[in-house]
Amino acid sequence: xxxxxxxxxxxxxxxxxxxxxxxxxxxxxxxxxxxxxxxxxxxxxxxxxxxxxxxxxxxxxxxxxxxxxxxxxxxxxxxxxxxxxxxxxxxxxxxxxxxxxxxxxxxxxxxxxxxxxxxxxxxxxxxxxxxxxxxxxxxxxxxxxxxxxxxxxxxxxxxxxxxxxxxxxxxxxxxxx
Amino acid sequence: xxxxxxxxxxxxxxxxxxxxxxxxxxxxxxxxxxxxxxxxxxxxxxxxxxxxxxxxxxxxxxxxxxxxxxxxxxxxxxxxxxxxxxxxxxxxxxxxxxxxxxxxxxxxxxxxxxxxxxxxxxxxxxxxxxxxxxxxxxxxxxxxxxxxxxxxxxxxxxxxxxxxxxxxxxxxxxxxxxxxxxxxxxxxxxxxxxxxxxxxxxxxxxxxxxxxxxxxxxxxxxxxxxxxxxxxxxxxxxxxxxxxxxxxxxxxxxxxxxxxxxxxxxxxxxxxxxxxxxxxxxxxxxxxxxxxxxxxxxxxxxxxxxxxxxxxxxxxxxxxxxxxxxxxxxxxxxxxxxxxxxxxxxxxxxxxxxxxxxxxxxxxxxxxxxx
Amino acid sequence: xxxxxxxxxxxxxxxxxxxxxxxxxxxxxxxxxxxxxxxxxxxxxxxxxxxxxxxxxxxxxxxxxxxxxxxxxxxxxxxxxxxxxxxxxxxxxxxxxxxx
Lengths: 177, 371, 100
Description:
The structure holds 3 protein chains of 3 kinds.
Chain A: H1 3-22, H2 26-46, H3 50-75, H4 87-107, H5 127-136, H6 139-160, H7 169-176
Chain B: H1 2-37, H2 51-55, H3 62-74, H4 86-103, E1 113-115, E2 118-120, H5 130-140, H6 142-150, H7 155-186, H8 191-196, E3 201-202, E4 206-207, H9 210-213, H10 215-228, H11 254-277, E5 287-288, E6 291-293, E7 299-301, H12 304-330, H13 338-367
Helix pairs in contact in B: 1-11, 1-12, 4-5, 4-6, 4-11, 5-7, 6-7, 7-10, 7-13, 10-11, 10-13, 11-12
Chain C: H1 4-24, H2 28-53, H3 57-87
Helix pairs in contact in C: 1-2, 2-3
């Protein structure tokens, strides 16, 4: 990819990420997060990680964000009016973030990073090589991940279901009044 | 290099224009075709000069449906309901249209064409992971509908939006499983390669279309595709008799036109997916690159350009036939109830899809080769 | 290929924006979205280094990180729904039951 495209995508990613934390409407934050995810996916594809880039769009931007959207609907979150936290929190938070950024720049500065670009093998980033690695070197992790997903499904259903008649304060108020 | 860029741009524009004109044709077929199926006449009054009527020709209603109706829709007042989120309300139709339009560019519509020594592949973007791109863009289609339902500040729109979102993400899974079975049969993600592998014959006369090796996946993709595009019998999100117009109740004018365009373009897209994966895309049976190799042993030689153009025409014929089939299904079947729909998706199609993937995997490993 | 410093600095900036989001915003859902931002920044770093070393390990790790993020999102959102059912709020400053 030509460098100007990288710079454009990087700027877009940073602007969208800022949009996530700045917006007052949670759905606008969600849209900004989707924009960030798509930009990062295009950067993945630019780095020759084609299958992982498309998987990012399919899984992250296409499924997980829909889950977020459903929860925002379910909780009926409106635009946040009024003050959102103390000014001191915002000030010290931004200061801490700036310090973290400076420290990361020092760690990742060019004189420390000496990763030479070796050539990519044929079929790098294709589905065949990803599957080859997954099913040979990382087989145990792959199988454990399937159990993890099962646990997540059972856990989220158990957490979010409504036990009939017990702990629902709004229903209790309605029946009381 | 530049000629490939220019050719790619022209092909992309051609495919998007083809998608739009197919949508227009489908709009006409919805009005007139549905009228014929339901034993009524449909629109037959609008004329421009009245010449045809004076000459005694029947009025087919083409001008009304394809010219007058769109003009009316685009010139209507465009209002945003009070209390609605203005930004999201305006963004939603285009967010719904965008993934559908960009999916058209990976569909192969012909074999190569040789222009001044360059071989140009008749597919706007020959991606090596074309099938993954398809799944990604189909998954993005949820957001326009969801935001349209939410941002309208209207309880029927919200209900329609929620139902549509749940339906679309449920049937995406079945579509993905059907496509995965076809990918396993052919061993490649590249759509042009999948279509090319469907040339040739078995037993001397049967074309190598994937519908013969994967009939269950064809039915799965047909049903799941119809459900994805919210066609009847799966059109509960926009059920006209219950939810006014579902998730686009509060839309008028140009934005409603964009939503309807999305509806028809998605229908055309599902038809294109079915032809690419199962009906051999642009392949005509018994037609190879140099001419017809008929099963009796006859051979008819044809120039390469004619073969390519016949492939494009064959692709269009197959797509239009499938679109008309989907339209006829629409005007024949009643609508599913919501729980029946969800039950069909999760308890019917997904286990069938998984079973199909399992059987395909066994067969591919046992025979040791792909098609 | 584009110099590695560019990709790593982009990853660092997005990570820092995520950290700032978790600290500054008090809405639990926005904090959760900032956590997803942090995960994406790390994914970007993995892919960038992996492609320069010519090794597929980076992509496999990103695959697993994505899966774990999906599982974590499902369970975390279930927890948020439970909290909302019991406390009627998603503002982190109102959840002070366990404070001294």
